[in-house]
Amino acid sequence: MMVDIQGLTKKYGSFTALDNLTLSLDEGVVFGFVGANGAGKSTTFSILSTLLSPTAGDAFINGKSVVREPKEVRKQIGYMPDFFGVYDQLKADEYLDFYGASYGLSAAERQVLIPQLLELVNLTHKRYEYVDLLSRGMKQRLCLARSLIHDPKVLILDEPASGLDPRARVEMRDILKHLKSMGKTILISSHILPELAEMCDEIGVIDNGKLIAHGNVAQIQDQLQGDKRLVAKVMDDIDKARAFFEEDPLVSSIEVIYGKNEIAFNYRGKTNDQVNLLRKAMLAEISIYALTEEEKDLEDVFMAITKGADEV
Ligand SMILES: Nc1ncnc2c1ncn2[C@@H]1O[C@H](COP(=O)(O)OP(=O)(O)O)[C@@H](O)[C@H]1O
Ligand SMILES: [Mg+2]
User: Fold this and answer.
1) For FRET with 260, which of 61, 146, 217, 248 sits at 20 to 30 Å CA-CA?
2) Which CATH class is domain 228-295?
3) What is the distance in A from the centroid of ligand 1 to the CA of 41?
Protein backbone atom coordinates (compact mmCIF):
# COMPACT_ATOMS: atom_id res chain seq x y z
CA MET A 1 0.00 0.00 0.00
CA MET A 2 1.53 3.31 -1.03
CA VAL A 3 -1.06 5.67 0.43
CA ASP A 4 -3.01 4.74 3.55
CA ILE A 5 -5.42 7.34 4.92
CA GLN A 6 -6.98 6.49 8.25
CA GLY A 7 -9.86 8.46 9.70
CA LEU A 8 -8.55 11.81 8.56
CA THR A 9 -10.57 14.71 9.96
CA LYS A 10 -10.06 18.46 9.70
CA LYS A 11 -12.09 21.02 11.59
CA TYR A 12 -11.98 24.77 11.23
CA GLY A 13 -13.57 25.88 14.48
CA SER A 14 -16.87 24.05 14.61
CA PHE A 15 -16.93 23.49 10.83
CA THR A 16 -15.85 20.04 9.67
CA ALA A 17 -14.09 20.38 6.31
CA LEU A 18 -12.96 16.74 6.24
CA ASP A 19 -14.90 14.05 8.02
CA ASN A 20 -13.22 10.76 8.93
CA LEU A 21 -11.70 9.99 5.53
CA THR A 22 -10.37 6.45 5.18
CA LEU A 23 -8.85 5.30 1.91
CA SER A 24 -5.91 3.26 0.70
CA LEU A 25 -4.13 3.12 -2.63
CA ASP A 26 -1.69 0.62 -4.05
CA GLU A 27 1.56 1.59 -5.69
CA GLY A 28 1.22 2.73 -9.30
CA VAL A 29 -2.46 3.61 -9.09
CA VAL A 30 -3.83 6.80 -10.61
CA PHE A 31 -6.50 7.99 -8.22
CA GLY A 32 -9.01 10.66 -9.17
CA PHE A 33 -10.43 12.70 -6.32
CA VAL A 34 -13.61 14.37 -7.43
CA GLY A 35 -15.96 16.72 -5.64
CA ALA A 36 -17.65 20.09 -6.04
CA ASN A 37 -15.93 23.29 -4.92
CA GLY A 38 -15.61 23.29 -1.14
CA ALA A 39 -15.98 19.51 -0.82
CA GLY A 40 -12.60 19.09 0.91
CA LYS A 41 -10.20 18.06 -1.86
CA SER A 42 -7.54 20.70 -1.24
CA THR A 43 -7.79 20.16 2.51
CA THR A 44 -7.08 16.46 2.04
CA PHE A 45 -4.19 17.06 -0.34
CA SER A 46 -2.67 19.72 1.94
CA ILE A 47 -2.71 17.27 4.85
CA LEU A 48 -1.15 14.51 2.71
CA SER A 49 1.52 17.01 1.69
CA THR A 50 2.19 17.86 5.38
CA LEU A 51 1.28 21.51 4.86
CA LEU A 52 -1.73 21.23 7.15
CA SER A 53 -2.20 19.20 10.33
CA PRO A 54 -5.29 17.03 10.69
CA THR A 55 -7.58 17.49 13.70
CA ALA A 56 -7.77 13.70 14.00
CA GLY A 57 -6.60 10.62 12.17
CA ASP A 58 -3.40 10.05 10.25
CA ALA A 59 -2.17 9.19 6.77
CA PHE A 60 0.81 7.11 5.73
CA ILE A 61 2.77 7.65 2.56
CA ASN A 62 4.94 4.65 1.80
CA GLY A 63 4.62 3.79 5.48
CA LYS A 64 5.57 7.24 6.82
CA SER A 65 3.14 9.16 9.00
CA VAL A 66 2.21 12.68 7.90
CA VAL A 67 1.66 13.55 11.56
CA ARG A 68 4.79 12.06 13.11
CA GLU A 69 7.27 11.91 10.20
CA PRO A 70 6.51 14.89 7.96
CA LYS A 71 10.12 15.23 6.81
CA GLU A 72 10.16 11.62 5.63
CA VAL A 73 6.81 12.07 3.91
CA ARG A 74 8.09 15.10 2.00
CA LYS A 75 10.80 12.95 0.41
CA GLN A 76 8.13 10.56 -0.87
CA ILE A 77 5.76 13.09 -2.38
CA GLY A 78 5.66 15.73 -5.06
CA TYR A 79 2.88 18.24 -4.51
CA MET A 80 1.37 20.57 -7.03
CA PRO A 81 -0.89 23.16 -5.39
CA ASP A 82 -3.99 24.60 -7.03
CA PHE A 83 -2.42 28.03 -7.37
CA PHE A 84 0.76 29.25 -8.98
CA GLY A 85 2.64 32.12 -7.34
CA VAL A 86 4.17 35.17 -8.97
CA TYR A 87 7.82 34.81 -9.97
CA ASP A 88 9.00 38.21 -10.98
CA GLN A 89 12.18 38.13 -13.04
CA LEU A 90 12.67 34.37 -12.70
CA LYS A 91 13.20 32.22 -15.78
CA ALA A 92 11.90 28.66 -16.11
CA ASP A 93 15.28 27.01 -15.58
CA GLU A 94 16.11 29.33 -12.67
CA TYR A 95 12.80 28.42 -11.09
CA LEU A 96 13.61 24.70 -11.25
CA ASP A 97 17.18 25.36 -10.17
CA PHE A 98 15.90 27.14 -7.07
CA TYR A 99 13.64 24.24 -6.10
CA GLY A 100 16.32 21.67 -6.91
CA ALA A 101 18.74 23.46 -4.59
CA SER A 102 16.12 23.61 -1.86
CA TYR A 103 15.84 19.81 -2.09
CA GLY A 104 19.59 19.56 -1.61
CA LEU A 105 20.55 18.63 -5.19
CA SER A 106 24.06 19.68 -6.19
CA ALA A 107 24.68 22.15 -9.03
CA ALA A 108 25.99 19.30 -11.19
CA GLU A 109 22.88 17.18 -10.52
CA ARG A 110 20.62 20.11 -11.29
CA GLN A 111 22.39 20.74 -14.56
CA VAL A 112 21.58 17.22 -15.73
CA LEU A 113 18.10 17.04 -14.28
CA ILE A 114 16.58 20.35 -15.33
CA PRO A 115 16.73 19.76 -19.11
CA GLN A 116 15.26 16.28 -18.54
CA LEU A 117 12.37 17.65 -16.52
CA LEU A 118 11.68 20.39 -19.04
CA GLU A 119 11.65 17.77 -21.78
CA LEU A 120 9.23 15.61 -19.81
CA VAL A 121 6.71 18.46 -19.52
CA ASN A 122 7.25 19.75 -23.08
CA LEU A 123 8.88 23.00 -22.04
CA THR A 124 12.34 22.62 -23.51
CA HIS A 125 11.67 25.57 -25.84
CA LYS A 126 10.76 27.77 -22.85
CA ARG A 127 13.83 27.07 -20.76
CA TYR A 128 15.03 30.68 -20.77
CA GLU A 129 11.58 32.31 -20.76
CA TYR A 130 10.36 34.35 -17.80
CA VAL A 131 7.94 32.28 -15.73
CA ASP A 132 5.41 35.08 -15.52
CA LEU A 133 5.21 35.22 -19.31
CA LEU A 134 4.26 31.56 -19.73
CA SER A 135 0.68 30.57 -20.54
CA ARG A 136 -1.42 29.00 -17.82
CA GLY A 137 -0.93 25.51 -19.26
CA MET A 138 2.83 26.03 -19.38
CA LYS A 139 2.90 27.29 -15.80
CA GLN A 140 0.98 24.22 -14.70
CA ARG A 141 3.48 21.99 -16.48
CA LEU A 142 6.42 23.86 -15.00
CA CYS A 143 4.86 23.41 -11.59
CA LEU A 144 4.52 19.70 -12.33
CA ALA A 145 8.21 19.55 -13.28
CA ARG A 146 9.02 21.22 -9.99
CA SER A 147 7.04 18.62 -8.06
CA LEU A 148 9.11 15.89 -9.75
CA ILE A 149 12.51 17.31 -8.95
CA HIS A 150 13.35 14.90 -6.12
CA ASP A 151 11.93 11.88 -7.99
CA PRO A 152 9.06 11.25 -5.56
CA LYS A 153 7.10 8.00 -5.56
CA VAL A 154 3.78 9.74 -5.04
CA LEU A 155 2.42 12.75 -6.90
CA ILE A 156 -0.34 14.87 -5.39
CA LEU A 157 -1.81 17.17 -7.99
CA ASP A 158 -4.53 19.61 -6.98
CA GLU A 159 -6.71 20.45 -9.99
CA PRO A 160 -3.85 20.39 -12.51
CA ALA A 161 -6.21 20.76 -15.46
CA SER A 162 -8.35 23.55 -14.09
CA GLY A 163 -8.51 26.63 -16.28
CA LEU A 164 -6.76 24.90 -19.18
CA ASP A 165 -8.04 24.93 -22.73
CA PRO A 166 -8.83 21.52 -24.31
CA ARG A 167 -5.49 21.27 -26.04
CA ALA A 168 -3.56 22.00 -22.85
CA ARG A 169 -5.69 19.43 -21.03
CA VAL A 170 -4.78 16.75 -23.53
CA GLU A 171 -1.13 17.67 -23.14
CA MET A 172 -1.40 17.42 -19.35
CA ARG A 173 -3.15 14.08 -19.64
CA ASP A 174 -0.43 12.68 -21.87
CA ILE A 175 2.23 13.75 -19.39
CA LEU A 176 0.33 12.06 -16.57
CA LYS A 177 0.10 8.86 -18.62
CA HIS A 178 3.83 8.99 -19.03
CA LEU A 179 4.32 9.46 -15.29
CA LYS A 180 2.07 6.51 -14.61
CA SER A 181 4.17 4.39 -16.95
CA MET A 182 7.17 5.40 -14.83
CA GLY A 183 5.43 3.71 -11.90
CA LYS A 184 4.37 6.80 -9.97
CA THR A 185 1.35 6.67 -7.72
CA ILE A 186 -0.73 9.70 -8.68
CA LEU A 187 -3.51 11.47 -6.80
CA ILE A 188 -5.27 14.05 -8.90
CA SER A 189 -8.28 16.17 -8.06
CA SER A 190 -10.94 17.81 -10.16
CA HIS A 191 -14.48 19.09 -9.83
CA ILE A 192 -15.26 17.56 -13.23
CA LEU A 193 -15.84 13.81 -13.13
CA PRO A 194 -15.58 12.85 -16.83
CA GLU A 195 -12.23 14.61 -16.99
CA LEU A 196 -10.85 12.16 -14.43
CA ALA A 197 -12.84 9.12 -15.50
CA GLU A 198 -10.81 8.52 -18.63
CA MET A 199 -7.38 8.64 -17.05
CA CYS A 200 -7.85 7.23 -13.55
CA ASP A 201 -7.79 3.63 -12.35
CA GLU A 202 -9.87 4.52 -9.31
CA ILE A 203 -12.16 7.38 -8.43
CA GLY A 204 -13.14 8.70 -5.02
CA VAL A 205 -16.08 11.07 -4.70
CA ILE A 206 -16.04 13.53 -1.82
CA ASP A 207 -19.04 15.58 -0.78
CA ASN A 208 -19.17 17.90 2.23
CA GLY A 209 -15.98 16.40 3.61
CA LYS A 210 -17.19 12.80 3.35
CA LEU A 211 -16.05 10.12 0.94
CA ILE A 212 -19.35 8.99 -0.58
CA ALA A 213 -18.07 6.55 -3.21
CA HIS A 214 -14.84 4.81 -4.15
CA GLY A 215 -14.04 2.35 -6.91
CA ASN A 216 -13.61 2.13 -10.65
CA VAL A 217 -15.86 4.20 -12.88
CA ALA A 218 -18.54 1.50 -13.24
CA GLN A 219 -18.66 0.92 -9.48
CA ILE A 220 -18.93 4.64 -8.81
CA GLN A 221 -21.82 4.88 -11.21
CA ASP A 222 -23.57 2.04 -9.39
CA GLN A 223 -22.91 3.51 -5.94
CA LEU A 224 -24.13 6.97 -6.86
CA GLN A 225 -26.92 6.16 -9.20
CA GLY A 226 -29.86 5.87 -6.82
CA ASP A 227 -33.03 5.20 -8.80
CA LYS A 228 -32.82 4.05 -12.37
CA ARG A 229 -35.47 4.94 -14.89
CA LEU A 230 -36.66 1.81 -16.65
CA VAL A 231 -38.97 1.45 -19.60
CA ALA A 232 -40.99 -1.75 -20.14
CA LYS A 233 -42.47 -2.48 -23.55
CA VAL A 234 -45.64 -4.48 -23.02
CA MET A 235 -47.31 -6.71 -25.58
CA ASP A 236 -50.97 -6.63 -24.58
CA ASP A 237 -52.91 -5.38 -21.54
CA ILE A 238 -51.11 -2.25 -20.45
CA ASP A 239 -53.41 -1.55 -17.49
CA LYS A 240 -52.81 -5.01 -16.10
CA ALA A 241 -49.08 -4.34 -16.43
CA ARG A 242 -49.49 -1.02 -14.68
CA ALA A 243 -51.27 -2.67 -11.75
CA PHE A 244 -48.43 -5.21 -11.54
CA PHE A 245 -45.73 -2.52 -11.36
CA GLU A 246 -47.71 -0.46 -8.86
CA GLU A 247 -47.54 -3.33 -6.40
CA ASP A 248 -43.75 -3.60 -6.50
CA PRO A 249 -42.17 -1.74 -3.55
CA LEU A 250 -39.05 -0.92 -5.58
CA VAL A 251 -41.07 0.86 -8.26
CA SER A 252 -42.17 4.49 -8.15
CA SER A 253 -43.17 7.38 -10.44
CA ILE A 254 -44.98 5.22 -12.95
CA GLU A 255 -45.88 6.76 -16.27
CA VAL A 256 -47.94 4.95 -18.89
CA ILE A 257 -47.28 5.82 -22.51
CA TYR A 258 -50.47 4.48 -24.12
CA GLY A 259 -49.51 5.30 -27.69
CA LYS A 260 -46.47 3.03 -27.48
CA ASN A 261 -47.84 0.52 -24.98
CA GLU A 262 -44.93 1.34 -22.69
CA ILE A 263 -44.54 1.89 -19.00
CA ALA A 264 -41.73 4.02 -17.59
CA PHE A 265 -40.89 3.95 -13.89
CA ASN A 266 -38.18 4.68 -11.35
CA TYR A 267 -36.58 1.53 -10.00
CA ARG A 268 -34.67 1.38 -6.74
CA GLY A 269 -33.47 -2.23 -7.03
CA LYS A 270 -30.15 -3.72 -8.09
CA THR A 271 -29.55 -5.80 -11.18
CA ASN A 272 -30.57 -9.07 -9.51
CA ASP A 273 -33.83 -7.49 -8.28
CA GLN A 274 -34.51 -6.56 -11.85
CA VAL A 275 -34.15 -10.19 -12.92
CA ASN A 276 -36.69 -11.17 -10.25
CA LEU A 277 -39.02 -8.45 -11.42
CA LEU A 278 -39.06 -9.95 -14.91
CA ARG A 279 -39.58 -13.44 -13.50
CA LYS A 280 -42.55 -12.27 -11.45
CA ALA A 281 -43.99 -10.48 -14.46
CA MET A 282 -43.82 -13.69 -16.45
CA LEU A 283 -45.57 -15.65 -13.70
CA ALA A 284 -48.28 -12.98 -13.58
CA GLU A 285 -48.64 -13.36 -17.36
CA ILE A 286 -47.58 -9.81 -18.13
CA SER A 287 -45.95 -9.94 -21.54
CA ILE A 288 -42.94 -7.69 -21.37
CA TYR A 289 -40.87 -8.01 -24.52
CA ALA A 290 -38.24 -5.42 -23.63
CA LEU A 291 -36.98 -3.73 -20.50
CA THR A 292 -34.53 -0.93 -21.08
CA GLU A 293 -32.72 1.52 -18.89
CA GLU A 294 -32.63 5.20 -19.69
CA GLU A 295 -28.97 6.10 -19.92
CA LYS A 296 -27.79 8.66 -17.44
CA ASP A 297 -24.35 9.97 -18.10
CA LEU A 298 -21.72 10.10 -15.42
CA GLU A 299 -21.83 13.85 -15.09
CA ASP A 300 -25.61 13.81 -14.45
CA VAL A 301 -25.11 11.23 -11.73
CA PHE A 302 -22.38 13.30 -10.15
CA MET A 303 -24.36 16.53 -10.39
CA ALA A 304 -27.37 14.91 -8.75
CA ILE A 305 -25.37 13.67 -5.80
CA THR A 306 -23.38 16.84 -5.19
CA LYS A 307 -26.04 19.42 -6.00
CA GLY A 308 -26.06 22.43 -3.72
CA ALA A 309 -22.45 22.01 -2.66
CA ASP A 310 -21.34 24.59 -5.22
CA GLU A 311 -23.00 27.37 -3.28
CA VAL A 312 -20.62 26.89 -0.34
N1 LIG B 1 -8.44 28.08 6.47
C2 LIG B 1 -9.75 27.80 6.44
N3 LIG B 1 -10.58 28.26 7.40
C4 LIG B 1 -11.90 27.97 7.39
N5 LIG B 1 -12.49 27.21 6.46
C6 LIG B 1 -11.73 26.70 5.48
C7 LIG B 1 -10.32 26.98 5.42
N8 LIG B 1 -9.82 26.34 4.34
C9 LIG B 1 -10.86 25.71 3.76
N10 LIG B 1 -11.99 25.93 4.44
C11 LIG B 1 -13.32 25.39 4.10
O12 LIG B 1 -13.23 23.98 4.08
C13 LIG B 1 -14.04 23.45 3.04
C14 LIG B 1 -13.22 22.57 2.14
O15 LIG B 1 -12.34 23.39 1.39
P16 LIG B 1 -11.34 22.80 0.29
O17 LIG B 1 -10.62 21.65 0.87
O18 LIG B 1 -10.54 23.92 -0.21
O19 LIG B 1 -12.36 22.27 -0.82
P20 LIG B 1 -12.08 21.91 -2.36
O21 LIG B 1 -10.63 21.89 -2.60
O22 LIG B 1 -12.76 20.59 -2.55
O23 LIG B 1 -12.77 22.98 -3.16
C24 LIG B 1 -14.68 24.63 2.34
O25 LIG B 1 -15.97 24.82 2.87
C26 LIG B 1 -13.77 25.78 2.72
O27 LIG B 1 -14.49 26.99 2.73
MG1 LIG C 1 -9.49 22.95 -3.99
Assistant:
1) 248
2) alpha beta
3) 8
